[in-house]
Design goal:
Length: 259
């Protein structure tokens, strides 16, 4: 398994020799992969450390259908100085172009229901993932993922930290441009609006989350996530990350479908 770390700071690019033209320098190395999704709250970037991110992704059969899978993202983040990493502004989980989701086959849980009663209030079968959040400097909390449908008809998931009552809304969005070479769908996640100054917001040093579940109704089993890739074929994943400092990172990983 390999992991390629690509980091880019949104600022004016220049070289010692001045070899880049202004128009070239203005082009972002990692443009937004799902611009059709919700837009984050506009706020100025703040000074802060550069995050050094790494991504490991594993895939295993979900045990429900022939092509059903569970996808496990494991993101780590640190800084060269050891100080708190910059908080996120927006994440987009990027899925291999062979992967499709079937959220319509699963019950849904909306944000209001979760916030009113926690995970127990969500309908049975609506949980489609889990994980763990390690917050700087030493807090560890369970993560739970619920299938959801928004008022505008968009499909997606709620990535939640029940212990803290945190709910992060994700929408499934098709990727655009150069990302279509490797990916098909992205799970577009925005940080919640906050009155806390960006430099003081919580940040994770490790975030593990899975996408995948099964449900059986009327004698038929459905998988939340499926892949059309053949055994032995590589699957590509990424995590487009925009931080409050303006930095954009795109750690990526590749794994093989072994079964």
């Amino acid at each position: 398994m390999r992991s390629t770390i690509k980091l880019f700071v949104l600022a004016t690019l220049a070289t010692a020799a001045g070899s880049l033209l202004p128009a070239e320098a203005a082009q972002p190395k990692f443009p937004h992969p799902t611009p059709g999704g919700p837009a984050p709250v506009a706020e100025p970037d703040v000074a802060g450390p550069e995050n050094i991110d790494h991504l490991d992704v594993t895939v295993r059969p979900d045990g429900g259908t022939r092509d059903g899978i569970e996808i496990f993202y494991d993101r780590t983040s640190h800084t060269a100085s050891g100080e708190k990493p910059a908080a996120m502004r927006q994440f987009v989980f990027l899925f291999d172009k062979s992967i499709r989701f079937t959220p319509e086959a699963f019950p849904t849980c909306d944000r209001a229901t979760f916030e009113a009663g926690g995970p127990a209030a969500c309908p049975p079968g609506s949980k489609v993932g889990s994980g763990q959040a390690d917050l700087y400097p030493s807090t560890v909390a369970e993560v739970a993922v619920f299938n959801t449908k928004y008022a505008n008809g968009r499909r997606g998931v709620l990535i939640t930290v029940p212990a803290g009552g945190l709910v992060l809304e994700n929408t499934f969005e098709p990727v655009v441009g150069k990302y279509r070479a490797d990916y098909r769908w992205g799970s577009d996640e925005l940080a919640n609006p906050s009155t806390v100054p960006p430099q003081d917001r919580a940040a994770t040093t490790r975030f593990q989350v899975s996408f995948g579940a099964t449900i059986t109704e009327g004698g038929r089993t459905h998988s939340f996530a499926e892949t059309s890739a053949k055994p032995g074929k590589p699957l590509d994943f990424g995590l487009w990350s925009h931080f409050v400092t303006g930095q954009v990172a795109l750690p990526e990983d590749r794994t093989i479908r072994p079964w």
